[in-house]
Amino acid sequence: MPPQTDARTRAAIALTRFGLGARAGEIDTVAADPRGWLADQIRPGAGAPNPEGEFENSTARVQAFLDYQRDSQGARQARRETPPAQGAAMTPAAMPMEDASPQAQAAFDARRESRRELTQDTAQEFLARTALGATTQTGFAERWALFWANAFTVSATKFQSAIFMGQYEREAIRPYVFGRFEDLAVAAETHPAMLLYLDQAQSIGPNSRAGERRQAGLNENLAREIMELHTVGADGGYSQADVTEFARALTGWSIPTNRDAAQMTRASAGGEPGENGFLFRPIVHEPGARTVLGKSYAEGGAEQGEAILRDLANRPETARRLARNIARHFVADDPPEAVVDRLEAAWTTSRGDLAMVAKALVEAPEAWDPAPAKIKTPYEFIVSSHRALGTRPQRPQPLQQALIQMGQPAFSAPSPEGWPDTAADWAGPDALVKRLNWAKTVGDTARAPDPNAVAADALGPRLSERTRLAVARAESRPEALTLFLMSPEFQRR
């Protein structure tokens, strides 16, 4: 293979496998130094870029959530105080009712408007995130951020966490993806989105001051998922007793409520305010020293759970497990052991410096195999299509509907495990039909003047002769674009 052709092939790999797809002219630009193009995006201390837009921070979002809860309580109270019409069934679904009192109707309208604003803002956040992917010049940094957001999954399948999704990625994930893993872990686990998604805000130490006064229970969800999914893994050597001890240490990690005083101090029973809407609540914290994975931790407040979390983040089992997950995402469903070893070594020697791990990935020869081994997820398919066509999504509803149809609804991973990452999960017959339907819609509406040029710009040397001829011989421009979007080269990375 001639040197120049080889350089363009490596540029196509850099843009597609490490990034989110090539835009017009990018392959030729990146071909000058594909590895350098990737390395320049690894910015320790700077993190990955955030989507553009004027969005609330988590502190403001918590207040909006509390306003919604207050409005909901007011609507329930007004409904209880409104006598039903003769023979009418008084149910929440029946509200508003024609004979509702002005007070009940106003309360219902306030609750509905609060919920609409919260969900609308989340939809705009997702639109902005997709637009960033479609237009960014730092596709590797964006894919790296998306990988870590999925590794620390929070899902919009639960309303309470859904309304914090944009804030979660902007505040707890993106700023830390090229820093130390332990700092990323602390930021993610203490964010309101995670605390609400995994019910940590409901966890009360049975022997805490609050627990002694009422029936209260320990919720182990966050502790279990940190150990099983975020750090050492299910085979990391921990026991149920370790999970319970960790859950006890995490009690008190919460967010403000409408009952909290406006001014809180570190010594207050109400709580200790922290960053991004986090609140440590001493009154529900389980007292006592803890022992997790054979290590003892002195009695303390929020720092007790954080100390355990940081130790879990730095364990060798965590390094090995996440090195494999990175290799699986970027290289192959069944990654070569050599690349896993490289990533693990970089992790271990740098003590979890994710910038060093990212550099090890870029430098791994196994990651540059020309044969594409990964199937794009629906989100990646849509983003890379926009990049190839030089467009960006304009409205959230069509974007969300397309992702729902293809099985990857916006911000809505089906479980704390996150979105799956192998061909078996995304390349079934029904899934491909859904992709074809979307590709046809794009082909019918796109204004790309020359499908042949689009295919050549997006795929470069990866464009096979078979696909080139199919696009060139298509009977219409929509058909040509559809054939390009559904080609094996474009579907794979």
Radius of gyration (CA) equals 25 Å
- Secondary-structure-derived class: mainly alpha
Helical content, roughly? 55-70%
Low-confidence stretches: 261-270
Widest sheet, order of strands: 1-3-2
Annotation, overall tally of beta strands:
5
The backbone outline, from C-alpha atoms, is: globular
Quaternary structure classification: single chain
**The biggest beta sheet, please?**
3 strands, antiparallel
- Whole-number mean pLDDT: 91
What count of helical segments does DSSP give?
25
Separation, N- and C-terminal Cα atoms: 21 Å
Helix-strand string = HHHHHHHHHHHHHEEEEEHHHHHHHHHHHH
What does this structure look like?
This protein is mainly alpha-helical and 493 residues long. Helix content is 56%, strand content 2%. The protein is built from 25 helices and 5 strands. It has helices spanning 3-18, 26-30, 34-39, 58-81, 102-135, 139-151, 159-162, 165-173, 181-189, 192-197, 209-213, 221-230, 240-250, 302-313, 316-330, 337-350, 354-363, 378-389, 396-405, 423-426, 429-445, 451-459, 465-472, 477-485, 488-491; strands at residues 253-254, 272-273, 279-280, 290-292, 295-297. The strands form 2 sheets. A 3-stranded antiparallel sheet has the order 1-3-2. Strand 4 and strand 5 form a beta hairpin. It is globular. The chain starts with a helix and ends with a helix. The relative contact order is 0.11.
